[in-house]
Amino acid sequence: MLTTMEAQRVALRAPTPPDYLVNANERQYLAKICWLLHDGATHALRVTFDSVHPPLYLRQHLAQQQVRSVLRRLLEQKILSETQWSILYPSKKKETSSDTYDAQLLLILLQSICHLSPPYPHGWNTLPLPGDTSLSADVVRLQMYLQEAGGLVGVRSEEYPVMWKQIVQVLLRTGGPEVRIKITRIDQETLTPEQQAHFINLIKGHWSAPEEGALGRLRRLGGPGLVHSRDHVVSKRRMPREKEMLDQEGISAEDRIVLSKVHRQLIESVMVDDIIDRLIQGHVIKVGDKQDVMTPGKNQERMQILLSKILHSKLPYSFKLLCDALSIKYPKLHETVANIRKTVHREGTKDAVDMVSVVQQGLANKYRAMFSRVTPLQWSDAHVSIRDVYVPLEVVTQDGDKLQLNQILPAAVTSGRGKRVLVEGDSGSGKSFLSAMLAYQWAGQTTFFTSNFSFLILLDARTIDGSLAKTIQAQVQTENCKVNTEDVWSILEQHARDTAIIVDNFDEDQCSDELRQVVLGTKLRHASVMIMSRPVEQTDLWMSLDYRLFVLGLSPLNISRCLKTFAVISKMMTEDYETFYEVVSRPEFKLQRYLRSPYVCLVIFGIYTISGRAAVLSLSTLTSLFEQFLVALATNFCRKPEDDRRSGNEFPSEVLSAISSLQALAYRLVVSKEKLMTDGDVDRVVKLLRTATEKRDDVNIATTEDENEADEREIRTVSHPSEGRESNDSLLRRTGILHRADSNRWSFTCNALRDFLAARHLSDTPFKTLDKVLEEQKVLRHARFSQMAAFLCGLFRDNAESPLQSSLVKDMTLQVTKSTRRVSFDKQASSGGEVTSEDTGNDGVGRSHVMNYVHTLQALAECSHNDDLTGSLVRSLPKSIILQRDGLFPTQCLAGLALAVKDESSSITHVEVELLPYHGFQGDELLNLAEALAANSKLQTLIIRWQNFPLMVAFLKAALKNTPSLDTVLVQNSTRKPISHVSASTWVSLHEVAALLRNTVSFSFLDCTASIVLSHLIPYLPNTIRNLDFSGCLVNNVSAAALGSKLESSPDCCLLNLSDTHLESSDLSILFHDLKLCGSLRELILAGTKFDRTGAKAVSEYLKLTSSLQRLDLSRSHLSTDVCQLLACGMSQNTSLATLVIRDAMITREDKELLRKTRTEAELLIDGL
């Protein structure tokens, strides 16, 4: 059956005329058709063949025994010629490539070894159905067009546009974007007679007698019933089923496609127990393999193993048997799989499927090659696998749960947008190393993770300048396999739900537009994306996140493991390592708090290895750390012994100039939009280092070789000038400062080192110029410059009279003032803590979040022993500090805040801290801050909002040890989750916390939903507290009895707030039984209480007996008529009550009138009538 155009063309064509009756135009048309078919059809067939057998693996495919036997049979049957055989299997084991295959050979290969199903219903012999646009159908069409053109001597003008259009449609479907260029060129060209003869003869030479050629013999052998197994072609005569199955090893390519499409659905929906027995009966799974499948505890992990065994089974019917097993208990799923299987088998093997495996394998090979040979000690040449050097990092969730490496990737989604996860950590905490380890693990074993992804893409955000697709394509591309950018992107879009993208070194200010779209979900919406960022980056302000993870670096136990790993790599002696570890593990070692950073551990180890023990003992700040590291790296580069260095002239001028150039480059990267350095940028550094190296070698030659040896060396150098010459890459890597980011760009090994070098560049800038630079670049306004500014202060820590330091401190002080707003604190607001309002009067207190002072606090951490500088910065801080952040607190900020709080010149009187679950992993830094609060003699108000109960107790215990002026403590639970487990030591610490409140005037413990906490807290509270607030807490009989007993013996308590405490009648009875004897209570707040008759009676009896209560607050309470009558009775006999508050209470108008008319001895004001 022909299409409309094909039928029209056949009707127009008359029998082929003799050559002498063909005019010039008709021959021109034929020549252009032949040219189009020779170039375009061959290209399209080659693209199709490469998609099935990628060039990277073509030699391996052709070498397979099954494929070779099929082609050998075709050679024996004269379908393949000896020439074609030699092209497929060249002598001397040369590489074969489809570039040398002509159209005829490609057609034979496509129809014999490429798993293509014959078009229905006519097979390979006739034009396919008009609506069939499958790959197989288009291959047949191209074959027919070639054969048809080979029998023509000319093309009439009426036929030419019809033939041209029909051929072009097929080429555009199969040839990709490149064929469009060929079509346009051919269409616009006019051929000379010689060119016409050339292209016509090219086609006629191979296609003039189709039934006598190779394809004709292939037709006669196979015909429309040609059978295609996975690896070879058999004749129309059917084999016995058993022999056919034995000849085909493994499931067919089509079934592999189907399995890949339904893989996730099978894992999530099917129970292994329901199908495994059927698979064992069919010998797909061996009885011994059942134990391997059933070993994991989770069904999804079992299904992954089971499907992997089916995929690699040698039985061709393995997948069909799986489908049969599904039909029993999963009929709907079986129907879905069957429909997909029918579609795939009808359309044949398409390029996208094979490209999927090519892309997967390309990414895996790339990551294995990148990370199987890394250099962790940048100053040495030791190479190890990343697996050998990786030490587990502490990665925690927002709920405070620690994750193992295989749990870090987000779960794939079945609908909606993929997960967007922010992974936050300080510079040097190991985020990049973690990203690399995740990619390496995926490349080696995709089932390692609890969430399996078919594709994992590791991107360095700094290397993406233009097209994201090209960046990804470059990871897949190899010399032997050329993959189109469009193909890679198309595959990722089709398999987005099975794609995880890790974006390392993310910076909002330096993010490409296309990467931003992926992060936001406007591109690759269904892919899961993990973004690695620093705490100072405000990524969450514009990004919609699903959740966060936090990289805290090394656990205390893994610090020694990390240092020992470095020692093993550098082949350090055991005695030397023990000496080194003894130095850094001392409590007095001032950088102890920074050892959680793997990069800091690396730097300290490098200093010890190169410069010795004394250099490590001299370290006090991060600034001094990087100063010593720079000296150690320069020493190592120059290979200069310690005793050969001279004071004031330690290193060659070329090395010092190279360091100055690196400092300038570091500053440029920090303040500009540039992300990396090109080879041209570091060219001057290379020249300087090479000059220094050559001078050093000349000196060594002169001092270590005699004259004859020097002459011989000179001769060798002249004969082989490049022998022994160190490459530029090796030279730069040996500095320990730079490493390759991509093929032609460089980056610094760590952002912290980059910021230090940038600060050194600024410190060498003239004072007047520097002041202008700081203002123009807004260095003190943006958090991304905070580390550089801190290092700049640290570089002048020993020079108190430096005008640059004075100017820097002045600018920081001014910036602190701008970041501070004025608020007022209501010391009587025990029910709500603080009352804030914008206020510029003298009564206001300066107040702001700690992250607004990140420059100042980090500078304090770097200048702790400079009293003048520290005093100026501390005095600039406001009286009220809020330590609150939905994320990690930068370690330097916490250290700087601790220094500021305990400084004698500090004016900080109010501190508010929020402790989230994951802050427990920063416990040492936070407890250091708490001890600093205890040393502050001016602290008046401490507010703790907590979601981590043990951390809150430990923090309060440390902060309340010595606070004579602390008069207000507010502790509020900000989580809705119940307290699950509390250790005995935590309960003991809570008792101690309560006892330490002896100087406190107002104590608020709010929103605690665990009544057992109040039962442990209340009995140990001092009797000297005047205001008690337990709003929102869950009070039961035990805690009510404890509270009543406490107030009965308290001579000073004036205010008790029990708003929204869910008091029941029994609780009220117990509480007011003891309150009757309390003679100091003046204000009682029971807002939000649901009274019944029993509870109201207890309040009424209390009112009758108390002579101190002046204010009773029943706002938002449920006051029935009975309750109001009992209250009226109690108030009528009370002698002290002055105010009754019933605002927003559930009370009728008649009951309000009843209360209003109640006569009391004192004049009663009712608020809320």
TrEMBL record:
Gene3D superfamilies for this protein: Death Domain, Fas, P-loop containing nucleotide triphosphate hydrolases, Ribonuclease Inhibitor
Ranges of residues in domain CARD: 251-326
Record keyword Nucleotide-binding present: yes
GO cellular component, one term: cytoplasm
Gene Ontology molecular functions: ATP binding
Annotated region described as Disordered, given as residue ranges: 702-730, 825-844
Stretches with biased composition (Basic and acidic residues): 713-730
InterPro entries associated with the record: CARD, DEATH-like_dom_sf, HEPN_DZIP3, LRR_dom_sf, NACHT_NTPase, P-loop_NTPase, Sigma_54_int_dom_ATP-bd_1
Protein name: CARD domain-containing protein
